[in-house]
């Protein structure tokens, strides 16, 4: 397995973990008061957008040639950093 494939697997696992955490948050929000649900749903929507962006960047890396994926790695890492904020 080459460096690109290892990187993709590692980042996909990270995105999958975050998706699982987001699903847990959605489940908890469903049992909260209406006011709390509204606020949490705003946050969930923002997180979903960031997660989608991460998945898009990872797909771009997967499609990139071996020569160009290294430069794309920094764009993906920037996206991941936004998700952590």
In short:
It contains three helices and no strands. With 85 residues, the chain is mainly alpha-helical. It has a domain of 53 residues.
Could you name the ranges where pLDDT drops below 50 across 5 or more consecutive residues? none
Largest sheet: none
Helices and strands: which structural class?
mainly alpha
Q: What is the mean predicted local confidence, pLDDT?
A: 85
Helix content: over 70%
Element order: H for helix, E for strand: HHH
- Quickly count the helices: 3
Distance between the amino and carboxyl termini: 32 Å
Q: Count the strands?
A: 0
Name the overall outline.
elongated
* Portion in beta strands: under 5%
Radius of gyration: 15 Å
Explained architecture:
- The protein has about 80 residues and is mostly helical.
- The protein starts with a helix and ends with a helix.
- The relative contact order is 0.14.
- Helix 1 runs antiparallel to helix 2 and helix 2 packs antiparallel against helix 3.
- Helices cover about 85% and strands about 0% of the residues.
- It is elongated and about 50 Å long.
- The mean pLDDT is about 85.
- It contains 3 helices and no strands.
Defining key terms:
about 80 residues; mainly alpha
Write the layout of secondary structure elements.
Layout (H helix, E strand, L loop, with lengths): L2 H28 L3 H30 L5 H16 L1
């Amino acid at each position: 397995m080459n460096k690109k494939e290892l990187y993709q697997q590692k980042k996909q696992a990270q995105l999958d973990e975050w998706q699982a955490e987001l699903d847990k948050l959605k489940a908890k929000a469903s049992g909260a008061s209406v006011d709390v649900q509204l606020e949490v749903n705003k946050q969930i929507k923002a997180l979903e957008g960031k997660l989608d962006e991460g998945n898009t960047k990872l797909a771009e890396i997967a499609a990139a040639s071996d020569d160009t994926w290294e430069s794309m790695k920094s764009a993906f890492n920037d996206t991941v950093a936004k998700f952590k904020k």
